[in-house]
Design a protein that fits this description.
The protein has about 300 residues and is α/β, with parallel strands linked by helices. It has two domains: about 40-125 and about 245-305, D-Maltodextrin-Binding Protein, domain 2 (3-Layer(aba) Sandwich); about 130-240, Periplasmic binding protein-like II (D-Maltodextrin-Binding Protein, domain 2), CATH 3.40.190.10. The chain is about 35% helix and about 15% strand. It contains eleven helices and eleven strands. The chain has helices at about 60-75, 85-95, 105-115, 165-180, 185, 195-205, 215-225, 250-255, 260-270, 275-280, 295-305, and strands spanning about 45-50, 75-80, 100-105, 120-125, 130-135, 155-160, 190-195, 210-215, 235-240, 245-250, 285-290. The protein is globular. The protein starts with about 45 loop residues before the first strand and ends in a 5-residue tail after the last helix.
Length: about 300
């Protein structure tokens, strides 16, 4: 098995792959107010959202500069719409309440499966080769290793949201690949699901949970900002890589703002240089993306019963 590819493990028995969450219900999409494209686009609004993978109370503040940037670059009004949880972000997209979203790998493929014609148009510079950290409280005595951390089996373990690619889906996938067991069967104690990557890290740091899994970008950012002590909350394993976060565009954008708008939107996202805007996504740059980039995540999600 190539340790850098999630595809090599897709032959795992389907009986072991029944997981924790379900896909969202398909809903009929509606175009944004303003009718068909053409004419004065200034009266129409591009509404966008993001999965709440860290503190939801900070979402609007974090993404306001992106809204301002898109408004200026595209000559329209862009407005950020916060989502209460991962499911809510997919539902809002499926309903046409938002026309652009910063999704994780799983929520992205779920949203695109709900909305025919939806397109992944951009991703962070780290997203083609994203990965998760398995972490542990220093009191466990576990240290960083190249091998899967067998010592977590008897610890109190927390994932992130059940719909998180890097906080649950892929960590669960690698646990199943190693043990042939679902997480609920593999761990000797009941597992937990936090509300976000930052909460996972803090719960492990304070010892509420002894070990957990989260995305590397949030962990590294928290260490950089001094909100996490890597001596108390240790990285014990880095997973193989996989594709993850992405901006997905709703096809109704072409009706609302005219033909070719999605291409203009993609160009504007890729052109972002402001470090404050990029910090909202904890990325150093935005690059192009296409639906096919997330085929591996889609295949895993189908086998885990998370897509129709």
């Amino acid at each position: 098995m190539n340790p850098k590819s999630i595809l090599a493990g897709l032959a795992l028995p389907l009986a072991t792959l029944t997981l924790l969450a379900t896909g969202c219900t398909k809903k009929e999409t509606t175009a944004d107010a303003g009718g068909s494209g053409g004419g004065d686009t200034s009266a129409r609004i591009l509404r966008f959202s993001a999965i709440p993978d860290t503190k939801t109370t900070e979402q609007s503040q974090k993404f306001q500069k992106l809204a301002d940037y898109l408004s200026t670059e595209l000559g329209i009004k862009a407005e950020f719409v916060p989502a209460a949880d991962y499911d809510a972000s997919v539902t809002k997209f499926a309903n046409g309440e938002i026309q652009l979203a910063w999704f994780g790998g799983l929520t992205g493929v779920q949203a695109r499966s709900e909305v025919p014609g939806a397109l992944a148009i951009a991703q962070g510079d780290t997203d083609p080769n994203f990965y998760s950290y398995f972490i542990a409280n220093a009191s466990t005595g576990l240290e960083l290793s190249d091998d899967f951390p067998e010592g977590i089996k008897d610890l109190k373990f927390t994932f992130g949201s059940k719909q998180s690619t890097s906080g649950c889906l892929m960590p669960s996938y690698f646990i199943i690949g190693k043990s042939g067991q679902k997480p609920e069967e593999y761990f000797s104690k009941p597992v937990n699901y936090s509300t976000g990557h930052d909460q996972t890290a803090l719960l492990v740091q304070d010892g509420t949970w002894e070990a957990g899994a989260l995305n590397f970008a949030t962990f590294d950012d928290m260490v950089k900002k001094g909100t996490l002590d890597p001596e108390k909350c240790r990285v014990i394993w880095k997973t193989p890589t996989y594709a993850d976060y992405n901006f997905t565009a709703h096809p109704d954008l072409e009706k609302t703002f005219g033909a070719g708008f999605i291409e203009k939107l993609q160009a504007a996202l890729i052109a972002i240089k402001d470090p404050e805007i990029l910090a909202a996504m904890t990325r150093g740059a935005i690059i192009s993306a296409k639906n096919e980039d997330f085929k591996g995540i889609e295949d895993v999600a189908k086998q885990l019963g998370l897509l129709r």
